[in-house]
Amino acid sequence: MKTIFNADHKLHDAAFELIGGKMMPAFECPRRAEIVLEKVTEAKLGPVIAPTATGIAAAAKVHDAKFVAFLEKAWGLWSEEHGDSDALPMTWPARSLRQIEPDSIDGKLGFYSFDAGCGLTKTSFQAIAAGVETSLTGVDLILAGETSAFALSRPPGHHATADQMGGYCYLNNAAIAAQVLAEAGRRVAILDVDYHHGNGTQAIFYERGDIYFASIHGHPTQEYPYFLGYADETGAGAGEGANLNLPLYWGSAWDAYGAALDKACEGIVAFGADTVVVSLGLDTFEEDPISKFKLKSEDYLRMGERIRKLGLQTLFVFEGGYAVEALGINTANVLIGFES
Ligand SMILES: [Zn+2]
């Protein structure tokens, strides 16, 4: 399996985040991608290649072009107003407020986000854009006939909606890949195994019957993103039946998780997918600092084996996972399990 590594990921390095009432060093940090690269290399899974300079025009296939343009210019507008700090939203167009894009950068940041989890630095957009190219390079490998590929980039993408950033995510790398694969004639399923519900991916494809979305995640009554990810969200219109949410409660370990993964895989088979995009988050790990599932390192081997049993071409796209020292092993284990 080839790994496509976005070396520009480190250009996105937010100084801090607000979590649990405290300003903390950002959990979504550059070391995450570096340790995964180390362990994937050690595991000799295959060549590590750089992304092709495809450009990011494909992002507009699932994102509002105005949102993409905003991300590109946001930090510049912010620095004119606030100087050399991370751009962060603080006010959102919630219930009772109008959905209107203000001129003020502070207002724009709120308009184009749904939480305060997305700081933008001077060079963040370069990392984000290279992330899209990483994902698109993975698509090219799949279309060229490779059985599998691993798009290793950060920041992650699955929380990003058509026109909002949130949850450390800016552009939705997995959704962009799925869309391009579908346009190439593939019947695509997205399997989201990140601990958090992939609300952005769900929202992008919710009324589409041609792309299937299955997600196993912390139950939104307990867990971020709280306002989407319930089991009764099954798709709408042409998408009815093409959305499968399998929320699990805090404390869930492999017995419950493996059963949910079986259900997700059964849904993917019933949909008739020929290609799978895996939103590969590893924050289901028992030692993850912001999550509450109980998966162990060896469980990720089983996760990879189960995905392989689908017998489909598979593009893994890196998402969350914040127990940094174990993140490399856990990620590699999924890929090793898949290849075994
Ligand atoms: Zn997550």
From TrEMBL:
* Cofactor(s) needed for function: Zn(2+)
Q: Has the keyword Zinc been applied to this entry?
A: yes
Residue span(s) of domain Histone deacetylase: 28-333
Q: Which UniProt keywords apply?
A: Hydrolase, Metal-binding, Zinc
- CDD domains documented for this protein: HDAC_classII_APAH
Task: Please verify whether the record's keywords include Cell division.
Answer: no
GO MF, one term, reads:
histone deacetylase activity
What biological process terms from GO does the record include?
epigenetic regulation of gene expression
Member of which family? Belongs to the histone deacetylase family.
- Which PANTHER family does the UniProt entry name for this protein? HISTONE DEACETYLASE 8 (PTHR10625:SF17), HISTONE DEACETYLASE HDAC1-RELATED (PTHR10625)
This chain belongs to the protein called: Acetylpolyamine amidohydrolase
- In its UniProt entry, the species of origin is given as Zavarzinia aquatilis
